[in-house]
User: Fold these one by one.
Assistant:
Number 1:
Amino acid sequence: MDRFLQKIITSQLIIYTARCLIGFVIGYKLLLAFPEYELFWLLLSIILVISPEGKDSRKLTIDRVRSNFIGSFVGLFCLMIDQNLNIGVLMFGIVATSAICYLFKIMNTARVAVVALLIILLQPHLSDIELTPFVRFATVTAGCLIGLTITVLSSMLIRKLKRKYGIAY
């Protein structure tokens, strides 16, 4: 049994899959419980920020959270510039998002930031047009925090188990 457990706690596939399933269940339950909100973005953000276990899983997850914030914030800023989006505003948003990711040294997760930007800007609005970007920003933020919590708590559990079984981490 100990050997089986050791294989589980060292398998990136099992750890990542378990984290994704936990995140999906939490996000999906929230989506069903609050259908009046656009919680699909919460669910998507949870999955986007979860990382497989490894030396840098916490750092990668935190970088993905930062990227989501950057993309969402730039998206809100672009909507303040011009609510009737045109290709120029969209291109400005992509450039600004990429530049900010570069400045924060998180280029490895810049695509997450661009996805967050596009979620804010392009997805058809289901609710009050003025509130939609803010609701999306809030749901993306909540999803990031849920994904970060899942990664951090599971990392703590895995480290504890690795210590118990004398496995290097």
Number 2:
Amino acid sequence: MRFMVLVKADHNSEAGVMPSEQLIVEMGKFNEQLVKAGVMLAGDGLQASSKGARIKIGPDGKRTVIDGPFPETKELVAGFWMIQAKSKQEAIEWFLRCPAEVEIRQVFDAADFEPVIKSDEGRAVMDAEREFRKRTNT
């Protein structure tokens, strides 16, 4: 099972305040444990939303680009991990050791979408997704 683990943004991360050296060291040691155990697939911190953009899709399908910053800090992400774990409980056990407050969300697998796939085009998309996952070992 794959999980995305999210670190929520706060006023400091949105203001561009860098984490303390102590937190960086603790996070580095935690990441090293994840890597050594073969759990971590990816992970990074994110720049403030002032350096980002959103693309909104209106009811008519028109796309609108909105440059950051975004006002609602509670809706923003400051960093993430992609991990591979046997269960949600294993993911929780790993992140109880994390030096940051996090949210853990399971990622859909291609098989989760199979009940709604009815067309040849849909099956081709799902086959391509499975092939990608096999090639990237994710």
Number 3:
Amino acid sequence: MVFIVASLGFGEETSFRRVRMPNLKGKRIKAVLTFSDNDKAVEVRPAKGSAVTVPFSQIDKASYEYTAVLSSKTHWLQIDYHEQTAHKVLVLLMDKHEYIHILDALKAHTGIDAEILGNADKVQGGDRRAR
């Protein structure tokens, strides 16, 4: 007996629940980040406020930055994208236990490697997977 398995084209969704995004007042609010192959988009759903959806095709670049101020260490993801002729930026604070998985998901779903900014490369020994 021979079984044939066919791909039905169902896309994958990868979600991260431990991210935060700044609201209009600069306060960091909880959000869910989803990379959706079905919708071909990055979706951010904050606990309060409106969701942000960025189609993969509108992403211009992404960057990762690690900052350490006193005892506070933070991992930031910035996604630069466009809507028609307007340039927009989506900024997310990533959890220290998920940031590598988020950066890997960004690459896997969009094909975009996040540019490493600032001291992130030095702090992590030149390889973001070293941690």
